[in-house]
Amino acid sequence: MNNAEKDSQPLGLDVGTSRIVVARCAEGKYEFESELNAFLTLPYSKLAASLLDREKVLHEVKGSEIVVFGDDAQKFAEIFHTEVRRPMVHGVLNPQEAHALAVMRALIRKLVGTAAPGQKIFFSVPSPMASAKDGLSYHEASIQQVLMELGFEATPIEEGLAVVFGELGDANYTGIGISCGSGLCNVCLAVLSVPVISFSLNKAGDFIDEQAALVTGEMATRMRVQKEQSFHLNGMSGDRVQNALTVYYGEMIVHLVEALRNEIASTRRLPKLDQSIPLVLSGGTVLPKGFLEHFQRVLRASDFPLRLSEVRVSADALNSTARGALMAALC
Asked: What is the model's pTM?
């Protein structure tokens, strides 16, 4: 493959509340690149802006402020003992942040660049939520416009379906794909790549962090860091942070299993499935040790209406959605 062909290959983009991930296929291998979907602002000065330029920190000057975004935003938040701000909330653009779309545009441009003529990109969007006031249409149209301005032929794909594409090829794209991220849990039951049931829930990683922070008096950022670095979902202990995370992880899992069971049970025209189907879990929220075992226990106790051949966590849970979006773009 020459450079021109490589540069025009389709891309997959996971537009997540916590991270934005781009997937590429180069010489038969998947390559991933990501940035934290976050920012913070600093007072503008010519000296500060020049120092950030020299250190190659991702930033833009907006009037009297310098907006630092991506992975660099987390580094500065730790230095100044503050929380990063989020361009997205519950899977869609954050209406409370005036910088949201500008930050998203800059992060996406940094990750995907400008398109070659006719280059395709599939980007993830949330499945519908129970609430009609979720801002999904505006979010989808805004991200699609950003990508079109960069020259791409941009197509949305629901996140749960992207997990099916990324994980269930060996099952003929039939099964249940679940992505538990920061803002949402996205769920899709697909048969031969066709979505039959698709929905999202807003009890996900941010819910766990915020509730645990509320009852412990800690910052939500600390909850997220502990959850990602050392948390083990193995019951209550003498550590109050561990206990708070355990309680709200349990609440999230029960809510997810009950919603999935109820959606399947209430679907009138469910295709006849002669064989048992796989269920795969992905996203950063499923990574703590003990998550799979806890999920399986709740599932067994729920009188689940479908026969499952396996329940597993993706071997590459953080990149599963981007990989599935890329596979859909390659089809």
From this structure: 0.94
